[in-house]
Design a protein that fits this description.
This protein is an alpha/beta fold and 224 residues long. The protein has helices spanning 2-20, 23-34, 60-66, 85-88, 109-115, 133-136, 161-164, 182-186, 206-215, and strands spanning 38-41, 51-59, 72-82, 99-103, 123-127, 147-149, 172-174, 196-198, 221-223. The chain has a single domain, classed as Alpha-Beta Horseshoe (Leucine-rich repeat, LRR (right-handed beta-alpha superhelix)), CATH 3.80.10. The chain is built from nine helices and nine strands. The model is unreliable at 3-17 (pLDDT under 50).
Amino acid sequence: MRIVALLLLLVCTASTTAQNTTAGEKAVMTEIVRLGGKADIDTTLFFEARVVVEFETANDALLAALKKHPEIGGIKVADATKCTDKGLAALKDLPNLRKIVFGKATLTPTGASTIGQCKELRYLGLVGCGVTDAEFTGMKGLTMLEHLALSENPQITDKSMATVKGFERLRVLYLNKTGITDKGLAELKGLDGLRTLSVKATKVTSDAADKFIDQMPNLRTIGQ
């Protein structure tokens, strides 16, 4: 009975969301489908930018097309290898962008700095995007971040933790397959609100991880 009730709740929620979708949001979603992507409404985002768009691949022209739609609050691209600094520059023209998830991108210092200008970001995923310590420094202004995924960027080392610890609102942090060590982990002790941390396939030792858990009152899970 509980499963049936949950399914009914999900259906009702989806139906309510669909009914509350504005004409502007519907127009954007239709355009995204025309461009070869998917679009949905995320009610947890800013009410003026609830549309989340998703593409398997993207290029500069596509990113430039997205900047015409301020209703977009989230962008997901599975393969961003064709996105250059020119395309990434369009992101800062989306005033209420809260979420960016890129895979397989090749970020330059300029591209990283551009992402760093998206000051309203709450969620940033750059898994396997070739991010280095030098480039990540350009994102230090993203002080509103709550979720950060930097896994599979081996050139992210302890040096970048000086930047990460400035994200005081951070709740979720993924650093799998990065160059972080026990020293870098210790840098994160000031993130009192951290609830989830994953440092799998790094040089963080079990002893350091256990000690870190003891020192972090709100940490619920740590992957090590």
